[in-house]
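Figure 3 (text version): structure tokens given as input.
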């Protein structure tokens, strides 16, 4: 299980509504309910798969369908402080992630089993990355990619028995 602690937590600390603890979220995402968990923590960023890091980032920065204008403005301020996007890239990032939470919820509901869920989730992450890379400037892509890779340092991997 991956856990996150670091600068991306600014939203949670500022009281932003959409910051469930990533630990609880990842228990739902990475493990079937009722699975036994034996953990061995590691702090190596190489242990965090890129698609997991991108998925966590997309969840962290995507707004739920019930978000208000004020909620979206707060989220954009946090994004600006993390990624340092220009206005065009920030708008593109927000646009690409607009439906990520809903799409992810649909994946969770439609998956037949854990394998199907993992496959669908990986496709969603890749499709989102492809859309993001098509819309961001080269500078925006570099900032986003570097930031996600840098944040891997703050993620932890717990290996559990499934």
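Below: residues designed for each position.
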């Amino acid at each position: 299980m991956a856990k996150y602690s670091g600068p991306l937590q600014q939203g949670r600390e500022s009281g932003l509504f959409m910051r469930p603890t990533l630990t609880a979220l990842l228990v739902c995402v990475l493990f079937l309910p009722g699975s036994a968990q034996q953990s061995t923590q590691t702090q190596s960023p190489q242990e965090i798969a890129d698609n997991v890091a991108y998925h966590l980032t997309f969840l962290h920065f995507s707004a739920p369908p019930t978000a208000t204008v004020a909620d979206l403005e707060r989220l954009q301020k946090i994004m600006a402080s993390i990624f340092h996007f220009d206005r065009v890239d920030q708008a593109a990032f927000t646009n690409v992630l607009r439906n990520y939470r809903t799409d992810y919820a649909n994946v969770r509901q439609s998956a037949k089993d854990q394998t199907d869920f993992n496959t669908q989730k990986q496709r969603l992450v890749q499709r989102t990355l492809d859309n993001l890379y098509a819309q961001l400037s080269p500078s925006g892509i570099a900032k986003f990619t570097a930031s996600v890779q840098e944040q891997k340092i703050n993620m932890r991997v717990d290996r559990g028995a499934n």
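Helices lie at 10-13, 22-30, 50-61, 69-83, 87-97, 100-110, 114-135, 138-151.
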